[in-house]
Amino acid sequence: MGNVGLTFNCCNETSDTPHEQGVGVAVSGRIDGPYEILTKEKPLLEKANDASLLTDDNGRTYLFVSGIKGCEIDLEAMKVIGGVKQLVNREPGEWDGMIIEGPMAFKRNGKYYLLYSSNTRGYEIGYATADHPLGPYTKGKNSPFFGAQSKKICDGRPPHLRCAFTGDPNSPYLGCGHNTIFKGPDGRDWICCHYEVVYDQNNPNHRYRDFFPTGNAKGKDNGPYRTEMLGIDPFWFDENGDLFSNQPSYTKQTVTW
Fold it and tell me: What is the tens place of the pLDDT at every residue in 129-179?
């Protein structure tokens, strides 16, 4: 079996083996493939998506899915071990009061970090920590530590879910989230996720007209539209192990190493 794991969302609407959106798993000996699909007959989990994997130091592997649930899995047998657990809950009235999704776990200095995103105020990323991959998890003091907010979205939420806008009023982003992390060539930790912006390529006075790419995947050639792009920014840990960032950048940045 390869040492690189890949998860993917899948569904099957045929009459032979119908299922709703589920989690597929593939492995390879190289990150650029080719990959062997291990879930050819059925998904590893049904009614689940946005999965990510964590293989611990002891070789045990864990799967995390949207809704911020997790389980241990047997990669050889392609089955769940011990059932699926709820790891983090929504908190109405807080930044993660609505949808919580896109979990990604990693281990640092003996502590497990579980990153996840919420669309309550736009799209933001928070974290929770634990002493075991399946918890119990405690939400991070500096959550959300990354992302973007929309005042229009904040003001439009129903009262029991409303959360005050505290974002950067100059930011062009409506939301930034659903991430992974990586170690950059400069030795720093970096976060990688999708950045969503309203872009008007025909407005010469648009502040960020030269910063964002032209074109529109949705086929609209004129006027403003919402579009997403891949973005990266650095983040760091303080002495207590909490996560911090300078939030999504929207001016020209330089990286040296």
Answer: 999 999 999 999 999 999 999 998 999 999 988 999 999 998 989 899 999
71 and 159 share a domain?
Answer: no
The model scores a pTM over 0.85: yes
What total number of domains does the chain contain? 2
Q: How large is the C-alpha radius of gyration of the chain?
A: 20
Q: What are phi and psi of 151, to 5 degrees?
A: -65, -35
Token pair in block for residue 43 = 């998904």
Q: Is residue 139 part of a domain?
A: yes
| 112 domain-assigned | yes
Lowest mean pLDDT among 4-18, 66-80, 210-224: 210-224
Residues 6+ apart with CB under 8 A from 246: 233, 234
Task: Report the DSSP beta bridge partners of residue 118.
Answer: 100, 124
In a domain, 212, yes or no: yes
Q: How far apart are CA 160 and CA 211, in angstroms?
A: 37
> Between residues 134 and 226, which one has the greater pLDDT?
134
- Supply the range of the domain harboring residue 57: 1-85
Q: What is the pLDDT of residues 83-115, one digit of tens each?
A: 999 999 999 999 999 999 999 999 999 999 999
Stated as kind and residue range, the H or E segment containing 153 is helix 151-156
Q: How far apart are CA 48 and CA 219, in angstroms?
A: 30
What are the tokens at 256? Answer: 């040296």
Same domain flag for 42 and 163: no
Mapped onto helix, strand or coil, the DSSP state of residue 171 is: coil
Place of tokens 């029991």: 160
Pairing of strands 189-199, 69-74: unpaired
